[in-house]
Write a structure and sequence with these properties.
This protein is mainly alpha-helical. It contains 17 helices and no strands. 34% of the residues are buried.
Length: 284
């Protein structure tokens, strides 16, 4: 849950289009909850990701982003003994880690195709999903004081999260679909990797059961529910749009899932009791 609420202010900071627009980098990091012990590690990565988010020659700049990420990752690793708060940010950066380190060989054969099609696909998807306009709006609240107030105002934060989650789901699925059309399976490779933090979170929610989701749903807007659903996250990587909030009725669905699991548990218990009684009657 904490990771989702760190995501918004971090993206607001990232959405600042130029480094000099950030009045105080340390203040921004403080406001977004980045521990001081790793702030220096993330400084260069902040601006490298900014350029990617604003779709400024992303294909050409991606190798440089990966190199910057590796340096940041190494820096964070070296801070582990002195800084115990690194796990959350390792999870948050796990998408870049997978894309830059694990999937590089998978992407290499498709470089020419990406060079031909990726920029136009990203621009077309942005036109449909309004990613850069949403981030530009967030950038208006990008100073440290505004970010701090936003984190403290739960309802305002939920409102901003709703637009961010909507455009994020739209953009991710659009890019996955359109890249797969032109350069299959690159769309799924890239999107699946970048969604890794949410895949990890959704997997945890699946394992601990539906009751945990109810408490999460009460704290986030309906537009973000799909990020806690493993099937929805996997669907985005395959190019499917996340379900619309009006179609979800998540708490009702979760309560139904709870009742179903309870029924299955009782049925299993009854079957075991029946088998035990049958064995007892037969003298076993």
């Amino acid at each position: 849950m904490q990771a989702l609420y760190v995501l918004l202010p971090l993206l607001a900071a990232l959405s600042l289009s130029k480094a000099h627009e950030v009045e105080s980098e340390d203040a921004i990091f403080d406001a977004t909850g980045v521990p001081q012990c790793i702030q220096a590690c993330l400084s260069d990565l902040l601006y490298a990701v900014t350029e990617m988010i604003h779709l400024q020659n992303p294909v050409a700049k991606f190798p440089g982003l990966c190199e910057t990420y590796r340096k940041a990752s190494s820096c964070i690793e070296n801070q582990k003994e002195a800084c115990v708060q690194t796990t959350l940010f390792e999870i948050a950066l796990s998408g870049l880690d997978e894309l830059c380190n694990d999937r590089e060989e998978d992407l290499a054969p498709h470089k020419e195709c990406l060079d031909r099609h990726a920029d136009l696909i990203l621009k077309n998807c942005d036109h449909s999903c309004h990613l850069t306009s949403v981030l530009s709006h967030l950038a208006e609240n990008g100073d440290a004081e505004a970010l701090q107030k936003l984190e403290e105002d739960h309802e305002a934060l939920k409102k901003e999260l709703s637009s961010l989650c909507t455009t994020f789901g739209c953009m991710s699925s659009c890019v996955a679909h359109d890249l797969n059309v032109q350069c299959s399976p690159v769309g799924t490779i890239i999107t699946e990797s970048l969604l890794r933090p949410f895949h990890t979170a959704a997997t945890i929610f699946e394992e601990i059961g539906p009751r945990a989701k109810i408490s999460i749903y009460r704290q986030i807007p309906p537009q973000c529910y799909y990020l806690t659903n493993l099937k929805d996250v996997q669907g985005i990587a395959e190019g499917r749009q996340p379900p619309k909030p009006s179609d979800l009725k998540p708490e009702d669905a979760i309560l139904k899932e709870i009742r179903l699991r309870e029924q299955q548990r009782k049925q299993k218990k009854a079957e075991l009791e029946h088998l035990f009684l049958m064995d007892a009657k037969q003298g076993y």
